[in-house]
């Protein structure tokens, strides 16, 4: 049976990403969160079949909310539904991952430039507060909370830019690479990520939109490089 406490402790950022904050069907929400946490934790791996009967038993719900949850996960690109076959955890090729990160880098760098040019003192204070939080989690070797605080850092930049359409696209792209996010555990990776976050904040404080754009692009490229280093060899993928 699933650990109910783990479901209740799911990060708010994850609930927002999955568009679960306003859903009232607890059984659907629990199933979605259980699957997504499984992907993040490596309990469920890309290409793994998902048995709806087993899922219902593990989460402690009926099969109807499981089907609804799987349909929602398919719409987010996290699950593949196949005719006459079991659904499975979505698997992305190295080329698809590179494409996702290319699009993220282009969008985020453009939005970062806009955000830097329109950020208020209050916006800068929010970004500075998040960087302080990142430092705290990095010092505590808390990769999970660091991951979500880092997501929030970039999300605030997009919010400042005022482009909600791009925000939706970026959130969808972020979800599609969840299974690769364990690359943060690579030695030195959190320190590298934090360094970029600090440099980006300094560029924001100088209102240097071009520098923010450059640093954001390099930060995302560094994240992709870490993911590619952490990827298993082709015969193990």
Automatic annotation (TrEMBL):
Q: Indicate whether Transcription appears among the record's keywords.
A: yes
Q: Which domain of life is it from?
A: Bacteria
| Keyword entries, A-Z | DNA-binding, Transcription, Transcription regulation
Keyword Kinase listed: no
Pfam families, alphabetized: FCD, GntR
GO function terms (MF aspect): DNA binding; DNA-binding transcription factor activity
Q: Which residues form the HTH gntR-type domain?
A: 25-92
**Stated name of the protein:** HTH gntR-type domain-containing protein
Q: Which organism is it from?
A: Amycolatopsis bartoniae
